[in-house]
Amino acid sequence: MTFQAPESLSEQIAQHLGQRIVTRDLKPGSRIQELKVSGDLNVSRGSVREALLVLERRHLVEIFPRRGAVVSSLTVASVNGLYDIYIDLLCMLGRKVIERWTGDELGGVMGRVREVEAVIQAVNSTGPDAAEKVIDAGFGVMHYAYGLVDNPFLEETLENFRPAISRTYFVALENFREGIGQTAVFFSRLGEAAVSGDADRLQSAIKAFGEHQRQQVLSILREEESA
């Protein structure tokens, strides 16, 4: 039996605050006060401080001397830097899946894709939590791929990007409602390419969707800058 330690309190706090940042409940530039958070959550300031350091490493907050923690801003430069590396990492994950597995295991990828499609069909008319559900379902496909590839370094690197990429994806889905349908098309193409063992087709689908999403987010940022 593999031992798994429970998530630390600071990690739980980081996830709580991180989710509020991803969903824009805490907006860019908002100050996060240690004392208020510790009071609201009934935890120590030390645990909150550790959580903020975790969020800083995940690029969701910036910590300044005498000002404390502030929700980081999405900028054209930061979005481009994020997507440059994230798209390449996803392509690597896809290649490794196809290199290592065929048959039933790759059929399991399509099973996860069907789960994403079911979530998308269920949330198409539900409202504000639709984006969160779609994002979580999409990461379910990635988690299945992690198990096939069995590369803890690649898995850890991609998971570290999850909060930042979720944040941009949430922005895109909230502003482009047709993006949920486009996500369904992407995952369908992804599953078909995986089952057929076509690495080039898989990488093409990843790059096309990633670049499309990047441009959606950039267009939103440019509109906000000009407003």
Task: Note down, in words, how this protein is organized.
This protein has 227 residues and is mainly alpha-helical. It has 2 domains: 9-71, Orthogonal Bundle (Arc Repressor Mutant, subunit A), CATH 1.10.10; 76-226, Up-down Bundle (Four Helix Bundle (Hemerythrin (Met), subunit A)), CATH 1.20.120. The chain is built from 9 helices and 3 strands, in the order αβααββαααααα. It has helices at 9-22, 34-41, 45-57, 76-100, 104-123, 130-149, 152-175, 179-196, 199-226, and strands at residues 31-32, 61-64, 68-71. A hairpin with a 3-residue loop joins strand 2 and strand 3. The protein is globular and about 55 Å long. It comes from Marinobacter antarcticus. InterPro entries: Tscrpt_reg_HTH_GntR, WH-like_DNA-bd_sf, WH_DNA-bd_sf. Residues 7-74 form the HTH gntR-type domain. Keywords: DNA-binding, Transcription, Transcription regulation.
Number of domains: 2
**Which secondary-structure class do the elements indicate?**
mainly alpha
In the predicted model, the low-confidence regions spanning at least 5 consecutive residues are 1-5
Which series of helices and strands comes N to C?
A: HEHHEEHHHHHH
| Amount of helix | over 70%
CATH superfamily annotation of the largest domain = GntR ligand-binding domain-like
CATH fold name of the largest domain: Four Helix Bundle (Hemerythrin (Met), subunit A)
**CATH class term of the largest domain:** Mainly Alpha
Residue-averaged pLDDT:
86
Task: Please provide the count of β strands.
Answer: 3
Main sheet makeup: 3 strands, antiparallel
Biggest β-sheet: strands ordered side by side in the sheet: 1-3-2
Provide the CATH architecture of the largest domain. Up-down Bundle
Ends distance: 56 Å
Give the overall shape.
globular
- What amount of the residues lies in strands? under 5%
Number of helices: 9
* Global Rg: 19 Å
